[in-house]
Amino acid sequence: NEWEITRLKENIGAVMEAKNRSEALPYRLTVSVGIAKETEGASVKEFVEAADKRLYEEKRNRKKQVERSGA
């Protein structure tokens, strides 16, 4: 269900943040996930396009957060 998928996404993000805090890396690890819900009558192509759209929305939002934080 959508709640479980969102929770999994948050857990993966938390692992990345913990890794960033625990090691002096010359880069910052992040993860972006595009989540789409299957809709009746939608083709596989439409489903993948919806997930891809959400992925790039999340990437843009993450970039804005990083820019605001000055990281």
The structural class is mainly alpha
What is the helix fraction of residues, given as a range? 55-70%
Strand content: under 5%
Tell me the number of helical segments per DSSP (H or I, 4 or more residues long): 2
Oligomer: single chain
Helix and strand pattern: HH
Descriptors:
71 residues, single chain, 2 helices, elongated
Describe the model.
The protein has 2 helices and no strands. The mean pLDDT is 86. It has 71 residues and is mainly alpha-helical.
Summarize the structure.
The chain is mainly alpha-helical and 71 residues long. The chain contains 2 helices and no strands.
Helix-strand blueprint:
Layout (H helix, E strand, L loop, with lengths): L1 H21 L21 H26 L2
